[in-house]
Prior knowledge:
By secondary structure, this protein is α/β, with parallel strands linked by helices. A 7-stranded parallel β-sheet has the order 3-2-1-4-5-6-9, with helices on both faces. Strands 7-8 form a two-stranded parallel sheet. The protein has one domain: Rossmann fold, CATH 3.40.50.720. The chain starts with a helix and ends in a 12-residue tail after the last helix. It is built from 7 helices and 9 strands, in the order αβαββαβαβαβββαβα.
Amino acid sequence: MNAKTAQIAQNASSPVQGAVALVTGANRGFGRLFAQELLARGAAKVYAAARDPRTVTDPGVVPVRLDITDPEQVRAAAAACGDVTLLVNNAGIFRQAPLIGSESTADAHAEMDTNYFGTLAVTRAFAPVLGRNGGGVLINALSVLSFVSYAPWGSYGASKAALWSLTNSTRDELRAQGTLVVGVHSGLADTDMTAGVEWPDKIDAKLYVHAALDAAEHGEVEALVDGPTQAYKAALSGYPANAEPS
């Protein structure tokens, strides 16, 4: 097989090359980078979903109005985007709030409503779409806080832990229709959402996006983006008694 033939074979088997993708929260941060990288890797069409589609300004994408906490907008998006073969559940919020020290449970409710229930709503709406279109790929944007805790951001961590469980259960439930479900975890990345957070060694957001799409292209169910995340995941058998990875 010559190099050209090998490349054609690789493209034909890639779930990204020629895909019709929808990315939630695509007007900034990870979402915007996902949309750009999907086009760069040969996606045929990218729906860029945002609460206000006017904030989606990148060329080559199709703006879609979608607040993932609004059931009517979720249903409308699934009806309008019936050709989707690759879904990136990226939209989320980050309130930087503890569970006990907060004045109320408002932040915890908001993060769970968006990060967990909003993602669940989009997944439920688009799972049949993916199934009708051959199975496809579903990518969920997670975090190292899916499986370790950091008390100052306890409510965010709880929502991501719930989303990790959702991701694993969704993978089991959608296996029969041929949908690859990918969970992506990393430490704090340098995005619009974390711009005001002082943190050493923030991860380049592009590394997160590349790792997620690489995993999808290789049929892998999980991407652990950075060294600390890999170490924490490997240390889970000793956690929480040993809170730090060896």
